[in-house]
């Protein structure tokens, strides 16, 4: 007798995982850059609102979506 193979997660779980990964990637992309080409010159650009507030918030939201995707029970 063969057992039917079943996936651990539902299609919606995988959709949330992909959305969470995209949020995390977007957060890291927004956080990148801002350095100075000359190491002797300080650049205030590293303290921009985008790098200090928006990017970490997107990363935390992405991790929250990942937790939700893992804990969401599939439809039976």
Give a structural overview.
By secondary structure, the protein is mostly helical. It has one domain. 58% of the residues lie in helices and 0% in strands. It contains two helices and no strands. The radius of gyration is 19 Å and the shape is elongated. The chain starts with 10 loop residues before the first helix and ends in a 5-residue tail after the last helix. The model has no long low-confidence stretch (mean pLDDT 90).
Termini Cα gap: 23 Å
Helical fraction: 55-70%
**What's the gyration radius in Å?**
19 Å
- Characterize the main sheet: none
Number of helices: 2
Q: Which overall shape is indicated by the principal axes computed on the Cα atoms?
A: elongated
Low-confidence stretches: none
The average pLDDT is 90
Percentage beta strand: under 5%
In short:
With 76 residues, the protein is mainly α.
Describe the secondary structure blueprint for this structure.
Blueprint: H1 11-31, H2 49-71
Key descriptive features of the protein:
76 residues; mainly alpha; 2 helices; 58% helix; 0% strand
């Amino acid at each position: 007798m063969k057992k039917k193979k079943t996936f651990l997660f539902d299609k919606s779980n995988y959709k949330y995982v992909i959305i969470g990964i995209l949020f995390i990637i977007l957060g890291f992309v927004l956080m990148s850059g801002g350095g100075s080409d000359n190491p002797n010159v300080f650049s205030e650009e590293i303290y921009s609102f985008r790098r200090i507030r928006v990017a970490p918030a997107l990363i935390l939201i992405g991790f929250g979506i990942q937790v939700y995707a893992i804990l969401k029970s599939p439809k039976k």
